[in-house]
Amino acid sequence: MVKTIFGRRIPMGIYDILVKDINGQEVSLNVFHGKVLLIVNTATGCGFTPQYDGLQKLYDDYKDKGFEILDFPCNQFGHQAPGTESEINDFCILKYHTTFPRFAKINVNGDDESPLYIFLKNQQKGILGSKNIKWNFTKFLVDKSGDVVKRYGPDKKPEIIESDIKKLLG
Asked: If I label 50, which of 66, 78, 81, 136 is the partner at 20 to 30 A Cα–Cα?
């Protein structure tokens, strides 16, 4: 279910959200219902880009237990995600050997921000109550019911999140 507030479409739940995959096709996040999700806005030319290694390790360790990482490239911070979706995907696969789902580039702040990030930021604010995403590699942890349970800043390495993931997986 989606409601409109001040002319913006606001999803009522994460499974109501449609995103575009790497090929530009709409995908309902409902396909991830019942899984623990780590949603990350990423960039290929960022100081935090090496976190792809840690993300892939988490994915390898927990994907068969009901865990998914959803990668959303974002070029809003220092233009650190240049290139097409295909170029970004190739870079991530070749340099970091990633196998988790990657989606089309999105905006996470501002007038053109993705409904996904409107939803995530309304559920979990950042430090000092700020909603805005400060930089790439901000991470949101979502439980099996679709509740956004935690937000991690870009400086939080994937390894630090592992214990929270294990708790949610049971």
From this structure: 66
